[in-house]
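User: Fold this; tokens only.

Assistant: Input:
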Amino acid sequence: PAHAPRWQSECRARGPVCARTLCSALPSACTHLSHYPTDCCPHCESIGCEHRGEVYSLGHHFQPSECEQCTCDMDGIARCLVADCAPPPCVNPVYEKGKCCPECKDGPNCYSDSSQIQVIAGGTTVWIDKCTHCRCHDGQDVGYWEGNRVAKCVRMRNCTPSVGHRQSPH
């Protein structure tokens, strides 16, 4: 440890004399130590934070990635906030350079049914057969998109696809 006693020897006429030296504690935010052979104790050359191999000065704000905002606190610790991206309201989100969270370039959308082949725009209703229609959320439905990548489908009562009687959905 930096504050541990060290032995320092001096040569005198009657032989080496050892004296115990107590080194002072180094700052916790010390990022670069130097210890010269002529010195008994190490010295702190620079104070700051080290984060992933990079050194930042105290109080400095930095962004190591698109999703992180960090500050080098006065205690020498880098404190970072990581973005928490909401699930995008689409099945084909785009990640752009310099941005953390994905975006829906084509607006909200979903799959028309569980086959996950046809993508329909948000707020759109499509008939997948003569008796079943499906509506894609519009992206405004609070909490709806949490894992719902398929349109909500309603099958008409008393309908057979071959006859195709469309009645009001239940």
